[in-house]
Write a structure and sequence with these properties.
alpha/beta, six-stranded mixed sheet, globular, single chain, 212 residues
């Protein structure tokens, strides 16, 4: 049986003022300077991602602009299909507040590697457990509808963690252990009823020059 292969790319770095706050599912812009500095990463992705493939982005512009930059770097332009349920965690009333304001608002202990715990439910938003549930449903649906195909998804750190958690049967707090870097590639496969994690955080690597 040919597996359904998912190639998940985290969007590029967002602009500095957005990084100063909890932006969650806010539609923030990419960093222009980082777009220039990361040209090698876009070229690597353009050659690393499979052809042909179905391409999906979320409803937030940072994923669409990241896909466009990969196309500009050499990948043949493909139709981008928007999938709302792969969007980043909605932080409700916390969206837009400075990072230093968050600890006083938490009702559960913070995670060692994340500003809040996996069960924390922001007022007016969603918990990471809820993110896992909606992402799991999308992954299962895509694996069925696109069986045996290659699927490229430009998404978010949260939705990629949620996909890994679904594949591995992890709790929300365990999912936060993963550090998903901007422009990194995570590969997950569906083999019949079983999920397999092929790679996490693939990045371009340039060997040192001889003699250095």
């Amino acid at each position: 049986m040919t597996p359904t292969r998912f190639f998940l790319v985290r969007h590029a770095l967002v602009e500095p003022s957005a990084r100063a706050v909890l932006y969650g599912s806010m539609d923030v812009a990419l960093c222009d300077l980082a777009l220039q500095q990361e040209a090698a990463s876009y070229r690597w992705l353009a050659h690393r991602l499979p052809q042909p493939a179905r391409w999906f982005v979320t409803t937030l512009s940072r994923t669409r602009f990241t896909a466009a930059a990969i196309f500009a770097a050499g990948y043949p332009e493909a139709e981008l299909e928007a999938e709302p349920d792969l969007v980043e965690q909605h932080l409700g009333d916390w969206q837009g507040i400075p990072h230093e304001a968050l600890p006083a608002l938490l009702t559960h202990p913070a995670h060692p590697f994340w500003p809040h715990g996996g069960e924390e439910h922001p007022p007016g938003g969603e918990s990471f457990r809820e993110v896992q549930a909606r992402v799991a449903a999308v992954m299962e649906r895509m694996a069925t509808l696109l069986e045996g195909q290659d699927v490229v998804i430009v998404a978010h750190g949260g939705s990629i963690r949620a996909a890994l958690a679904h594949a591995m049967g992890l709790t929300p707090d365990q999912a936060f252990v993963f550090s998903i870097k901007n422009l990194s590639l995570t590969r997950i496969e569906k083999h019949g009823p079983a999920w397999r994690v092929a790679a996490v955080n693939e990045e371009p690597w340039t060997p040192p020059a001889q003699g250095s």
